[in-house]
Design brief:
The structure is a homodimer. Chain A is an alpha+beta fold. The first copy, chain A, has helices at 18-33, 68-75, 79-84; strands spanning 2-9, 37-48, 57-65, 95-103.
């Protein structure tokens, strides 16, 4: 199983419209990716790991797929529409990472 | 719901023993945190977001709790044991972030 992480860096000038992201962007992404996308999680950064530290990422999303090929096949045809929506909710460029799931809900995937 | 993300930066000299992490570290963490920890996910970084790019993080873990207070109450007494185990599997310092879950398995939390 493959997870795609989309991490939005936090900073003094970072803007991120979580309402738009949850109400418009993520539903559009889910509609475009269809059944290839098995799960979506979204979090809002609250704090860093030590007292008083800011969160490194203002928002994070994780999308699960059966495989990297399943992700690429689903995402490729819609990459432009999905990426083109980013300026509608943030002024930062996300860090994107593709990972292999080693543990899933506390169990082997 | 609160998620704690633990992100291990990738680099030319990064070492990360995924076998130890899955077989020893995560089970120890789950045992110490007990029922306060609702879910654990672990991923291994495979690639970045553009062709040929390396993953930003060699490994990522997410731990779910009912609230930030539940996390702090469970983690505090065991922080030293948990943090002290880190050099047994990696030579990098993780980025830690506390986040509020906005979407969970594709649904509101």
């Amino acid at each position: 199983m493959t997870k795609v992480s989309v991490l939005y860096p936090n900073g003094a000038n970072t803007k991120f419209d979580m309402n738009y992201y949850l109400a418009k962007h993520i539903p559009m992404v889910k509609q475009k990716l269809g059944s290839a996308c098995k799960e979506v999680a979204v979090e809002e950064g609250i704090a860093g790991g030590v007292p008083g530290a800011a969160a490194t990422y203002v928002a994070m999303a994780q999308l699960a797929f059966d495989s990297i090929n399943a992700f690429q096949a689903a995402f490729g045809p819609h990459a432009e529409a999905i990426m083109g929506d980013i300026p509608n909710y943030t002024n930062v460029k996300p860090v994107v990472q593709i990972s292999e799931v080693k543990m899933w809900r506390g169990l082997e995937p």
